[in-house]
């Protein structure tokens, strides 16, 4: 199982798998907004249920006067809205950098990245298939 926080269940081994950097994106041709302001800027951000995620908090602090154009907890939907000119969005770099319609915007600070953890029952730690799967995941993510 994969998730964005360490596993704390007693019989589960938790390992940090990777760190995913995030960036602020706009539609190609967008100019970076002025950090600490955001006047006249529209943003696509997380749903209210996810408003306390580190990247959503960063966006609110970085562009406090920005207008919220849309909310979604789906990063692909956020990327589509951003690429269509719906507003700036904080996205994982592997998603945003892959979309040729988007450009990463430098406003002097980057949003916080996210660590991803893998967890599995301790009885499975020597299972060859599990180790092969984890090796494959790490190899694909590194390449």
Name a few traits of the molecule.
143 residues; alpha/beta; D-Maltodextrin-Binding Protein, domain 2; 2 domains; five-stranded mixed β-sheet; three-stranded antiparallel β-sheet; 4 helices; 8 strands; 26% helix; elongated
Plain-language structure description:
The chain is an alpha/beta fold and 143 residues long. It folds into two domains: 1-21 and 113-143, no CATH class; 24-111, D-Maltodextrin-Binding Protein, domain 2 (3-Layer(aba) Sandwich), CATH 3.40.190. The chain has four helices and eight strands. It has helices at 54-62, 75-83, 93-96, 128-142, and strands spanning 2-3, 12-20, 22-27, 42-45, 67-71, 88-92, 102-105, 114-121. The chain has a five-stranded mixed beta sheet, sandwiched between helices. A three-stranded antiparallel beta sheet has the order 1-8-2, with no helix packed on it. Strand 4 (42-45), helix 1 and strand 5 (67-71) form a beta-alpha-beta unit. The chain starts with a strand and ends with a helix.
């Amino acid at each position: 199982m994969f998730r964005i926080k360490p596993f704390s269940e007693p019989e589960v081994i938790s390992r940090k798998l990777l760190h995913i950097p995030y960036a602020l994106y706009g539609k190609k041709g967008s100019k970076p907004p002025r950090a600490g302001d955001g006047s006249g800027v529209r943003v696509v951000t997380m749903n209210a249920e996810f408003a306390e995620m580190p990247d959503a908090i960063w966006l609110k602090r970085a562009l406090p006067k920005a207008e919220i154009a849309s909310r979604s907890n789906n990063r692909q939907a956020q990327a589509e809205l951003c690429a269509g000119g719906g507003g700036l969005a904080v996205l994982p770099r592997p998603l945003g950098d892959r979309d040729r319609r988007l450009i990463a915007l430098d406003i002097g600070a980057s949003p916080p990245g996210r660590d991803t953890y893998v967890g599995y029952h301790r009885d499975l730690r020597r299972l060859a298939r599990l180790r092969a799967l984890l090796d494959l995941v790490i190899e694909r993510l590194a390449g």
